[in-house]
Amino acid sequence: MKTLLLASTATMLIAAPAFAQEEPADPAEETVIVVLGDGLAETPATPAYSHVEIEREQIVSSGSGRLEDVLSNVAGFQQFRRSDSRSANPTAQGATLRALGGNATSRALVLLDGVPMTDPFFGHIPFSAIAPERLGLIHVTRGGGSGPFGSGALAGTIELNSADASALGLFTGQVLANQREDTEMSASIAPEFGNGYAVFSGRWDRGDGFFTTPLADRVPATSRANFDDWSASGRLVQSLGPVELQLRGSAFETSRTLRFEGADSTTSGEDVSLRLVSRGSWQVDALAYAQWRNFSNIIVSSTRYVPVLDQKNTPAEGQGGKIEVRPPVGDDMTLRLGADFRRSAGDLFEDAYSAFSGNLTEERFAGGVNTNFGLFAENDIELGPVTLTGGLRADRYAIKDGYYRSFTGAGAPVRNDSYANRSDWEVTWRAGALVQANDVITFRAAAYTGLRLPTLNELYRPFVVFPVTTNANENLVPEKLEGYEVGADFAVDPGTRFSVTVFDNKVKNAIANVTIATNLRERQNLDAIDAFGVEFATSVQRGPWGFDASMALTNSEVRGTGFAAGLDGLTPSQTPKFSASATASYRADNGMNFAATLRHVSSQFEDDQETDVLPAATTVDLFAQMPVAGRLSAVARVENLFDETIVTRNQGGSMDIGVPQTVWLGLRYGF
């Protein structure tokens, strides 16, 4: 796979001038490609909820070339840690919005072409498997609510839409390298045929990485954050009369080393999905998918620098589907009716070793199955300048077949626990209104509830980040969201937009890692996490010049009684009170592209006790693209221009740091 990516990318770039010479001089002679590949159109009331779009021009011009970096342009988006997908433990890469953090599991629902991307065992997002250059548009909705796969959308929904053939062109490819000799290579081919097109893409990122350990704390066993990631995908889109067929398959594998030599982690996965879309008078969106994942991780002692835990195998799978029907009920009304289903199953196999003798001390096995069946209905009504919307969702969930078993190194049983099956119904709803006061101002208001099941990881898998041990909890109950928001959108002129949103979101039964003793935590349901905040966004376009900015100020607090009484009023771990992002750009018609992005994240706490602080961080990233010949361009990217120290972990003074100043140079074709 890696050899194929290297050869194909190099061939495309070398041949780029020839491709440029073969392009027709008259644009009118070019074949027009019908844009296919999306789901059903957004409903009229979609803007009633805080809504942000990131277009392809922004997606492919970030300083790092990583999806999580692109999403950080939306203030309030965060992962559990500040690390990106080259240096983070994959299981810590949950996505959330609105400071509803304190947990490495995703509280935001992430969809790729309608398919949930949440890992079926851990609940994180495989960001390294989703190459930004394959995307055409990103929709971010902050706030929970009903709809297809609405379960899990506590903090909001992030919809990733693949780029179609018209956006990609026949060939695209890029090769880049940085001063540490890390490399990034990707290539795509998107031929048009029949009544549609196909897209085949691949990407390979590799390198020795940077030191995540501060210089003063390094020892001979300290390792750079080595990474070696590849991903490949294929997508077929065809119009078959009144029905559009969308078929997608993908595979990925990531390998990373964290802190010490031998502390290696790997993730891998395969996905297939089939989608049928009908845009006739009776509109239909039907989807079925299957996913397979695996994870392994070796934990190395931070005092003796030998392996103490081998999480050797964590196979997991997910299946699901949904059908949405929009019957013809009139020009001023949009009715959505549907059902969806999701299943997650997985098992854990790990071995513990003595740091002193190296002998096997314990074998552990755990796993279970979660299912969720949902029914939903939503209706939008347009009444002149007023648009009203309301939705209702009923979910039947089941948590079953849970177990935990452990044996000594000699094979003697230590624990053999089988947990009771549980199931129940939960009803959630959302409602909103849009009022267009005039051509400039639109007011909006919304209220909603949401639901998230505990993951298999939270229920059954303990873990260690030395010296802290975190226990699982098979008795966790689903998280429930209650929220409301009001806002206003200002369209001053066609190139100037501004929005403000005030929100109050409360996650009841919020799952968090609660400290119960020195160096010992357990996953528990808190009474709630309550987040009150204000979000600002602006976009100004003047010819080739652009400015986009967003800012979020949030006061997020734990509500706790009983065992969690000591946490009441404290800030959830890993949750900043303030975040902001601003990008100034210049995009010329000839392909010249410059962008500078300023980001700031305020200080936050490592733990739930507010003892260890992660200092505030301000970074500047740069991007430049200069045409060379035809569609061939030279590219330069800079991450963390001023080499800001980004502390990503602080446990009693033991720290990890994020990406230092990094300069990338390369070539790209077709962008």
Give an overview of the whole structure.
It is a single chain. The chain has one domain (2-669): Maltoporin, Chain A (Beta Barrel). The protein is 6% helix and 57% strand. The protein has 6 helices and 40 strands. It is globular. It comes from Alteraurantiacibacter aestuarii. Residues 1-20 form the signal peptide.
Summarize the structure.
The chain has 671 residues and is mainly β.
Distance between the termini: 23 Å
Globular, elongated, flat, extended or rod-shaped: what is the shape? Answer: globular
Extract low-pLDDT stretches.
3-35
Round the Cα radius of gyration to an integer and report it: 25 Å
Q: Strand count, sense and closure of the main sheet?
A: 25 strands, antiparallel
Q: Considering the protein shown, what is the CATH homologous superfamily?
A: TonB-dependent receptor, beta-barrel domain
Q: How many β-strands, per DSSP? A: 40
The assigned structural class equals mainly beta
User: Which fold name fills CATH's third level, the topology?
Assistant: Maltoporin, Chain A
The CATH class label is Mainly Beta
Number of separate helices? 6
- What is the CATH architecture term? Beta Barrel
Give the helix proportion (percent range).
under 10%
Strand content: over 45%
Total domain count: 1
Mean of pLDDT? 91
List keywords for this structure.
25-stranded antiparallel β-sheet; 57% strand; 671 residues; mainly beta; five-stranded mixed β-sheet; 6% helix; Maltoporin, Chain A; globular
